[in-house]
Structure formats: structure tokens, C-alpha cells
């Protein structure tokens, strides 16, 4: 049974029960009203019979002839009420009681004629006794009839109340069944999809472990989500593989390009020296110095590669970040002055200390400042900010209003040997090495740039008291 069919069934059953309840409740209310009318009739009859007995006692005790007329008038009214009750209650459970009460009233009426014809003093004891017994009998029968009528009214009222309660209970059960079905078949799968969406955002593509006996639209949605997660995982693996291949290609071509130039110079110079074509001693010495310079250049490239790939960490110490930043600015002052760069120092005082390598962090700051000065060309604004972020982080920003970085290059800016500078003006290892240093310090580095408007590099580092100060962060671009 599909989910839609279930909900339609719940709705139709609820409507059917509600509509069925209307005639049932109407019938019970009508029955209750009828019993109330019968009860009113029985109460009037009982009260008249009590009045008859009261006047009977007045006559027998005080010989009051007016009481006889009162007895006759109430007796006639009682007989009229019994006749009416007999017509209305014929065939019911109390119809027999009404008939017996009518017979008792007839007997009492015949004795009442004796009261009318004879004074109380002339009635013998046997007649008096028979009158009292008959009077007690009509009181007993009318009281019994009244009790039965009250009982029927109570039953009718209970029935009139019971059916709405039963209907409400049935509708409540249907509502609970519908709510349970909604929770199990809709809300729970959707919450699982919501949770799985968060996992996908964190890179976890594990499928939703969900099985159902019946297939609904939500179940198909879960299946589609699992298929999407599998597709995303496969696609991510392809992208990662492609980026690894691209990065490896960039690395290899960069290494080949950087090492090829000094090696070619060394080979050509060595070949010239080896040919012994009448070179003077001074010329040979100069060419040997050139070979040495090219070898040192190749050695520097290899050193940068080793620094980039080195896994060990230098000794860490507590550092005053503001002082370290200003020291790095002082080292770069001449470079900034020659390039006509205006420096804006927005470094907050009283920053909490960080734990790290003085040499490593200064290398990062100098690299970012140097890159910013190169991006500014001949003049511009360079802003260096440092502030506390929350309770356990400090943030450093290096912002320039230079040429900026193209959007497609931002994603690759931290890749080794990737550079936006002209050939021969950069190895493309500076930002990669900086990223590795910041990562080893448990921090993160990110970049925001817009072509023609400038670039902002942001570094966040844990403070000494931060529990994450010794943990490495993930790469942020």
C-alpha cells in the first residue's frame, strides 16, 4: 500500500466515522429528550399521588370534608396522567408498571367513593386499613416508575455522551496512525537526508542506511540521494585525481624548467672550458665562477624543494606576534620604499602569544609582504592587520590594492611551482612553503582576490592557551 493510499484511507475513515456519528448522536439525543419528557410526566404523577395521600391523612385524622374533594381532583389528574403515560410507554420496559399503577389507582378510586359518601367517623377499621394499604401501593408503584424513568434518562444521557467520545477516540487513533506514518515514512527519512547532507558537505559520502517494506516517494528520494552521494564521491575522486595529475605535471615541469637553465649553463660553460680554445686564465676563472653560481642556483632550487617537502618541525617557542610582524615590516622597509608603497599598520597591541617557529613565521610574513609589493608595482597601499578572533585565535591580514589574481588562478595559488609572475621572477614555491609552515603551526591561510582590485591573504593561528595550537588545520582557499 502506497503512502498516498494510506493517507487517503485515514481521511476517508475519519470522514465516514464523523458522518456516522451525526445520526447516532441525533438518535441518542432524541431518545434522551423523550425520556426526559417521560420523567417529567412520572414526577407529576408521583407528586399528585403524594398530594392524594396527604389529603387522605387530613380526612382520616381531622375529618376534613374539603380534603375529600381535593382527593378526588388529584385522583382524576393522576388517572389522566396514567392514561397519557400508558399511551406513551406502551411496549416499553416500564409499560407494565404503568398498567399496574393504573389498576391500583382504580382500586383507590373505588375506596375514595366511600370517603365521599361516608364521614370519617363511620368508616370501619377494615376499610381504613385497606385505604392505607392501597395508598401505600400507589405511592410505591409511582416511586418505582419514577426511579426507572430516571434510570432510563441516565442511560440515554450516557449513550448520547458515549458516542461522541467513541467517535473522537476513533478519529484520534486515525490521527495518531497518520502522524506515526508521517514520522516514520516522511519526517525520519527527511531528517536522515538532512544529516547526510551535512556529512556530504564535510566530504563523507556514505549512503543513508534506510530500508522500507513499502516504497514511497520519500523512499525514492532517499535512493536518489544515495545515488547522488555515490556519484559525487566518484566525481570527487576523478577531480582529485585530475588535480593531482595537474599538480604533479606543474611540479615536474617547474622542477625541470628551474633546474634545466642552470644545468644548461653549466654544461655549455664546461664544454667551452673542456675544448681549450685558447682561453686565458682569467677567462677560465670567470667561467668557473659562472659554473659555481649556476650550481649554487640549482642547489637553492633543491633546497626550496626540500623545505617544501620537509615533514619535521623546527623548535617552537612563545612568540609576540605583533613584535614579529613589525620586525618583518622593518626588514622589508627598503623594498617598500624603493617601490613607493604606502604601509598602513593596523596591528593591535596586546595580542595573546602564539607558539611557533620564529624563523618559519617570519618567512611566511616576509613572503606575503614581498608578493604584495610585487603586485603593487610602482606605488600603492599595503595594509597589515592583526587582531584577536574569539578566545583562542589570532588573525593576520596582508592586503594590497594591486593587480589582483584571476579567479581561475586563486584555486591553484598554493600549488607548488604555480606562479602568476613572469618567467624567471619566481619559483612558485613561496606560497606552497608558507602554506606548509602555517599548517604545521595548527593554523590556516586563505586568499581573497579580484582582478584589478587587489588581494588579501588571511592567516589565523591558535594562541598558546588554545587546545588546537598543536593541531594542523586543513587547507583553506
Describe the fold and architecture:
The chain has 477 residues and is α+β, with helices and mostly antiparallel strands. It is built from eleven helices and seven strands. The protein has helices at residues 3-62, 65-88, 95-117, 125-201, 217-275, 281-309, 321-331, 333-338, 358-376, 407-410, 430-440; strands spanning 317-319, 341-347, 354-356, 380-389, 393-400, 444-450, 454-462. The strands form two sheets. The protein has a five-stranded mixed sheet with strand order 2-4-5-7-6. A hairpin with a 3-residue loop joins strand 6 and strand 7 (454-462). The radius of gyration is 54 Å and the shape is rod-shaped. The chain starts with a helix and ends in a 15-residue tail after the last strand.
Main sheet, how many strands, which sense, barrel?
5 strands, mixed
- Tally of DSSP helical segments: 11
Q: Strand order, biggest sheet?
A: 2-4-5-7-6
Unreliable segments of 5+ consecutive residues: 468-477
Order of helices and strands: HHHHHHEHHEEHEEHHEE
Q: What percentage of the residues does DSSP assign to strands (E)?
A: 5-15%
What is the molecular shape?
rod-shaped
How many E strands?
7
Q: Taking all residues together, what is the mean pLDDT? A: 78
- Rg on CA atoms, Å: 54 Å
Terminal residue distance: 50 Å
Q: Which structural class is indicated by helix and strand composition?
A: alpha+beta
Helix content: 55-70%
Amino acid at each position: 500500500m502506497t503512502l498516498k493510499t494510506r493517507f487517503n484511507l485515514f481521511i476517508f475513515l475519519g470522514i465516514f466515522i464523523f458522518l456516522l456519528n451525526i445520526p447516532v448522536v441525533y438518535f441518542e439525543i432524541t431518545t434522551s429528550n423523550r425520556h426526559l419528557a417521560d420523567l417529567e410526566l412520572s414526577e407529576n404523577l408521583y407528586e399528585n399521588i403524594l398530594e392524594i395521600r396527604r389529603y387522605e391523612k387530613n380526612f382520616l385524622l381531622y375529618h376534613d370534608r374539603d380534603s375529600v374533594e381535593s382527593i378526588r381532583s388529584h385522583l382524576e389528574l393522576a388517572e389522566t396522567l396514567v392514561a397519557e403515560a400508558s399511551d406513551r410507554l406502551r411496549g416499553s420496559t416500564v409499560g407494565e408498571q404503568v398498567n399496574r399503577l393504573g389498576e391500583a389507582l382504580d382500586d383507590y378510586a373505588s375506596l375514595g367513593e366511600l370517603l365521599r359518601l361516608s364521614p370519617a367517623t363511620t368508616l370501619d377499621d377494615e376499610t381504613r386499613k385497606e385505604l392505607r394499604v392501597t395508598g401505600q401501593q400507589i405511592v410505591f408503584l409511582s416511586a418505582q416508575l419514577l426511579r426507572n424513568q430516571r434510570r432510563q434518562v441516565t442511560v440515554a444521557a450516557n449513550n448520547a455522551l458515549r458516542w461522541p467520545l467513541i467517535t473522537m477516540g476513533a478519529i484520534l487513533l486515525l490521527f495518531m496512525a497518520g502522524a506515526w506514518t508521517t514520522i516514520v515514512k516522511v519526517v525520519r527519512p527527511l531528517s536522515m537526508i538532512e544529516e547526510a547532507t551535512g556529512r556530504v558537505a564535510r566530504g563523507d559520502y556514505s549512503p543513508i542506511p534506510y530500508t522500507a517494506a513499502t516504497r514511497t516517494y520519500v523512499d525514492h528520494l532517499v535512493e536518489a540521494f544515495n545515488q547522488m552521494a555515490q556519484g559525487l564521491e566518484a566525481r570527487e575522486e576523478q577531480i582529485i585525481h585530475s588535480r593531482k595529475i595537474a599538480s604533479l605535471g606543474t611540479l615536474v615541469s617547474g622542477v625541470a624548467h628551474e633546474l634545466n637553465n642552470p644545468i644548461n649553463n653549466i654544461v655549455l660553460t664546461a664544454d667551452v672550458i673542456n675544448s681549450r680554445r685558447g682561453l686565458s686564465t682569467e677567462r677560465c676563472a670567470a667561467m668557473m665562477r659562472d659554473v659555481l653560481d649556476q650550481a649554487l642556483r640549482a642547489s637553492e632550487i633543491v633546497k626550496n624543494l626540500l623545505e617544501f617537502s620537509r615533514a619535521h618541525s623546527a623548535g617552537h617557542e612563545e612568540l609576540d606576534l605583533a613584535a614579529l610582524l613589525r620586525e618583518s615590516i622593518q626588514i622589508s622597509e627598503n623594498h617598500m620604499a624603493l617601490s613607493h608603497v604606502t604601509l598602513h599598520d593596523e596591528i593591535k597591541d596586546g595580542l595573546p602569544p602564539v607558539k611557533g617557529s620564529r624563523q618559519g613565521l617570519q618567512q611566511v610574513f616576509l613572503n606575503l609582504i614581498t608578493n604584495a609589493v610585487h603586485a603593487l608595482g610602482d606605488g600603492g597601499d599595503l595594509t597589515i592587520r592583526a587582531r584577536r578572533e574569539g578566545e583562542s585565535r589570532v588573525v593576520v591580514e596582508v592586503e594590497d590594492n594591486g593587480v589582483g589574481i584571476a579567479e581561475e588562478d586563486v584555486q591553484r595559488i598554493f600549488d607548488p611551482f604555480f606562479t602568476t609572475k613572469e618567467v624567471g621572477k619566481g619559483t612558485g614555491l613561496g606560497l606552497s612553503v608558507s602554506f606548509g609552515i602555517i599548517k604545521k603551526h595548527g593554523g590556516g591561510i586563505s586568499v581573497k582576490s579580484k582582478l584589478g582590485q587587489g588581494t588579501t591573504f588571511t592567516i589565523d593561528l591558535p594562541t598558546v592557551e588554545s587546545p588546537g595550537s598543536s593541531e594542523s588545520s586543513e587547507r583553506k582557499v
